[in-house]
Amino acid sequence: MSIWDAFDRISRGSQPQGKIEFIIAGLGNPGIQYENSRHNAGFMGVAALEEKFGFKANRHKFHALVGEADIGGKRVLVIKPETYMNRSGEAIAEAMSFYKVGIENTLVIFDDISLEPGRIRIRRKGSAGGHNGLKSIIALCGGEDFPRIKLGVGAKPHPDYDLADWVLGKFNEEQQKAFDSRLADVCSAAEMIIKGDIAGAMNLYNK
C-alpha cells in the first residue's frame, strides 16, 4: 500500500467510495490575501460546485485541497491547487497520475481577461493564451487537449495598467454580481462535459 492509499483510507472516512473517472481543477492562489481576486475565479467556480453538488474540497492531498463528488453519473475529484498559479500543473499532474485519469478527462476552470465578467467560454482544448496556470498544466500534464471553462474577469482598464495588479485585484460590486450570475451555468456546463456532451455545453453557455 502506498502512502497515498493509506492517507486515503484515513482521510475519506465514510465518504462514498468509487473509482475516480474525472478531475475538475479550479485555478487560483492560496492565502487570504488572494481570496475573491480575479485570478481566483477558478476557486470561486469550485465553491459553486461545492454548493451545487454537496461536497467540500477541504482535504490536503497532491499539494492541493481536494474533495470528491458524484457529478454526471461519475466519481469526480475536484481540486484547488495550493502551489500558486504558475505551478498549477504540479498538483494536477500528481492527481492525474495517481488516479490514472487522462488529460481529456481533466476539466480546468480559470479566469480569462479577454472576457467581461458575466461571460463564459467552454473549449475542448487550446493553447495557454498567456495564462501562467495553463502554461504549467500544458507543460506537466501531457499537452493542450483538456476541456476548459473560461470565466470572464474583464480586461485591464488601460494598456499601461500592470497585469499582475489587475488579476490580483477584486471585482467591484457590479462586476461581482455579473460574475456570480453565471456560476450556476458553470456548474451545469461542468456536469454536461463530464457526461460527454461538451458540444451541448458550448452551444448553451458560450454567451
CATH class categorisation: Alpha Beta
Got a strand count?
Answer: 7
Integer count of domains: 1
- Poorly predicted sequence stretches spanning 5 or more consecutive residues: 9-16
Q: Which percent bin holds the helix content?
A: 25-40%
Strand residue content: 15-25%
- Order of H and E elements: HEHEEEHEEHEHHHH
Net shape: globular
Radius of gyration: 16 Å
What is the mean predicted local confidence, pLDDT? 90
- What is the third-level CATH name, the topology? Rossmann fold
Task: Describe the structure in your own words.
With 207 residues, the protein is an alpha/beta fold. It is 38% helix and 19% strand. It is built from 8 helices and 7 strands, in the order αβαβββαββαβαααα. The protein has helices at 3-12, 41-53, 88-99, 132-141, 163-167, 173-180, 183-194, 198-205, and strands spanning 22-26, 59-61, 64-71, 74-81, 106-112, 120-123, 148-152. A 7-stranded mixed beta sheet has the order 2-3-4-1-5-7-6, sandwiched between helices. The termini are far apart. The relative contact order is 0.17.
Summary keywords:
207 residues; alpha/beta; Rossmann fold; seven-stranded mixed β-sheet; 8 helices; 19% strand
